[in-house]
# Entry
Amino acid sequence: MNTVEKFSFAGEKVLVRVDFNVPLDAEYNITDDSRMRAALPTIKKILGDGGSVILMSHLGRPKEGPTEKYSLKHLVSHLSELVGVGVRFASDCIGEEAAHLSSSLQAGEVMLLENLRFYKEEEMGDRDFAAKLASMGTFYVNDAFGTAHRAHASTAIIADFFAGRKAFGLLMAKEVANADQVMKAPQRPFTAIVGGAKVSDKILIVENLLSTADHIIIGGGMAYTFFKAQGGEIGNSLCEMERLETCVDIMKKAEAKGVKIHLPVDSTIADKFAADATTSNCESFDIPAGWMGLDIGQKARIEFQEVILSAQTILWNGPMGVFEMKPFQAGTLAIAKAVADATDKGAFSLVGGGDSVAAVNQFGFADRVSYVSTGGGALLEYFEGKVLPGIAAVQHS
# Structure
């Protein structure tokens, strides 16, 4: 990969696509700045060389143009603290103000453009919009792995305007290197833990993992579609009836390839989807009518922990249950602890996907796993074997 380490940025005005899609509370305070911190090495490398930085990002999914809750102005104060210099802010990402601020930017200075998605042209991959962004800089850097799977104006199209003058940021390079360590050269045994609500969301990653993993642990709501496909009684548990054949097919392929699929033998069940529900523990294959599985059970936790602790490479994407509710977080907590313990013993562990990342952060294990990815959908698509437009655009000369 052509990264910023291979260039000197003295005198350059560098347009850097970052992923500052951070969570804000009702008063617009940042509740998790990890994505901002992750971009700092790239920003500081450029500034250290004597370049200036123009940061581009989206925030949320604004539907009708400029919206107060999605304005990047809420990030300026904290960003200035993180970078160590006062960050200028352009209240529009294109137009006269942005052009004026960028043209007057001096070496060592940083400016942040307003939310790119205030323009529909960003998500449409509009070439004219990309050209307006490109006109403000002399060099382009993509450091936004979290949006690398989108062929948007600022992630893919803009790169066309910087032949020979584009590179990946240090975060992007780190994300790809860690993903490749799991998918292309895993130490064995390689255990993948896949959770979440729906089989349909994870079908491609599971099918791709059948070619590389030794063990695949399946938890979360998606497990019950697998049980139903095998003739189990799952009560009111989540189930995608149209995916039953898919589940049977996956089990057959896994057996043919010698990949062991682990489903939770028992579940924590509830009489309703609520934190104050009545709960019980029962076999996942035989959940009573009117009850639903909302977490993996005690036996499943022990079995899954044993598989994880024997692994040398671990990928974790998706929780084991509705961990946002206290009665149903024991399974996800047990997995987080097992991944951390295995890492302590020398395994390489990669945690990716919003809910899994939230879990390791919430339970205090983030610093005990090998790598926590900033990319949710992008990481999934990379593991599905897809070419990511944001990566392809920079690699293309």
